[in-house]
Specification:
single chain, 314 residues, 2 domains, nine-stranded mixed beta sheet, two-stranded antiparallel ribbon, 8 helices, 41% helix
């Protein structure tokens, strides 16, 4: 009997109210004779029955309230999985990964042109002769147009010359049916410390491949390879802050949501496991947003969940 009472007291309060309510409603209406025969009758203690009915109503209301609060809590945990891990300031989200502050902002990468100490990471193809450098609709082209106004051709020539110096001889392959070019491979990085005399460093990551009959394509695995090589280049120059767009989206052909997650995971892996004495301190991922009235290319809920994941993963 005592064990049963202890077990009852451990139940939720609405369960206790339910059991007591049933007892108080039932007992005044039941009689047991000397032969243990049960018989029902109108309640001989109306007050007990009334209290029992009140407890039943309370139990039902408490159950509904608890159910709705649990549903609300579940919905909140899906929308905001780890609010203590993901910070928000001035509309921007951030989280710490192995000592690196990973920020996610909405806007244009070219707004980071000339920001001292921050290396701007730009995607290009495996040939490092990306025609996107002349296309202002691409991340590379928009940045080059802003930072190297009137010198787009010079920047492309610099790209090609520097990758030959730093990556060694490439491999000739058929780029299109009419054109062959020297490929240096996907997932490679070239760091330009003072491109065309500018003070802001630029890193070029080959995130796409192109071959005859297959066109231009990107893979998430290229992002991990390129990010590891980027961190190694930065360590040599004692640099530890980067700004980059969502890699492999756009001309890369990967859906922007998936490309963002891939970019974030590549940054997180580099922050956690990158070698060298100069680990990343700040990585800013810029999600393209044309203006304040337009929709960003990556949903904010995806950003929040992905940041929560990388900030808590071991």
């Amino acid at each position: 009997m005592i064990d049963a009472l202890k077990a009852l007291l451990k139940q939720p309060y609405w369960v206790i109210a339910l059991i007591l309510g049933v007892l108080l409603v039932s007992l005044p209406c039941v009689a047991i004779d000397k032969d243990n025969h049960w018989a029902t009758h109108p309640p001989n203690v109306p007050l007990l029955a009334a209290v029992g009915i009140g407890l039943l109503v309370l139990s039902a209301a408490a159950f509904v309230f608890t159910f709705l609060m649990n549903q609300r809590s579940d919905a909140k945990s899906v929308a905001d999985p780890t609010p203590s891990q993901v910070k928000e300031s001035n509309g921007n989200l951030s989280a710490r990964v192995a000592g690196c502050e990973v920020r996610v902002v909405e806007g244009r990468l070219e707004d980071y042109a000339g920001v001292g100490g921050t290396v701007v990471v730009l995607p290009c193809n495996e040939y490092f002769d990306d025609r996107c450098a002349g296309d202002p609709r691409s991340a590379l082209g928009a940045y080059v147009e802003r930072a190297f106004d009137g010198q787009v051709d010079g920047f492309i020539s610099l790209m090609k010359d520097e990758c030959k110096k730093k990556l060694g001889p490439g491999r000739m392959q058929q780029k299109t049916r009419e054109e062959s070019a020297e490929s240096f491979g996907a997932g490679r990085c070239v760091l330009l410390l003072r491109p065309l005399g500018r003070s802001s460093p630029v890193a070029l990551l080959s995130t796409t491949t192109q071959s005859a009959g297959e066109g231009l394509a990107a893979r998430i695995s290229y992002l991990f390879d390129g990010m590891r090589e980027l961190v190694a280049c930065l360590a040599d120059e004692r640099l530890n802050e980067v700004a980059l767009p969502v890699l492999a989206a756009g001309h890369g052909g990967i859906d922007a949501q998936l490309a963002f997650v891939g970019t974030l995971l590549a940054v997180a892996e580099a922050a956690r496991f990158g070698k060298g004495g100069q680990p990343l301190k700040v990585a800013t991922i810029v999600i393209f947003r044309k203006d304040a009235n337009s929709t960003p290319e990556v949903d904010r809920a995806v950003v929040r969940r992905a940041l929560a994941l990388v900030s808590t993963a071991v």
